[in-house]
Amino acid sequence: xxxxxxxxxxxxxxxxxxxxxxxxxxxxxxxxxxxxxxxxxxxxxxxxxxxxxxxxxxxxxxxxxxxxxxxxxxxxxxxxxxxxxxxxxxxxxxxxxxxxxxxxxxxxxxxxxxxxxxxxxxxxxxxxxxxxxxxxxxxxxxxxxxxxxx
Length: 150
Fold this sequence. Notes:
Blueprint: E1 6-9, H1 15-26, E2 30-35, H2 42-48, E3 52-56, H3 62-76, E4 81-85, H4 99-127, E5 131-135
Parallel strand pairs: 1-2, 1-4, 2-3, 4-5
Helix pairs in contact: 3-4
């Protein structure tokens, strides 16, 4: 039997982060599941028990990202896969979006991704292995009176 992988996943409460977390756990891997609200991870812990380490993470605070990453690494002893998936986005009709809010959302997502990668790299280098995945998505919906949604 193969050794289970240890995943560090941001945004594990919803969307892509949640899908990847559930998939990894169903395959027998272990997951450090991060979310802004720990209550959103209760069902994962109930289903998968000690294979899940739920940690609260505000990805825009670099000091907190470093602390959470270190805590996850200490708990499982290594991290094999880092999946950075933001758990929020700014959506709206594209011709009505407020540029300052779009910038703020993109800035928060970028800060989170950079902080996670800066946290992960020293550990992965020391281990001599590891994978990093970053995810984002944009959807366009032209069904509403030829208006595009972002």
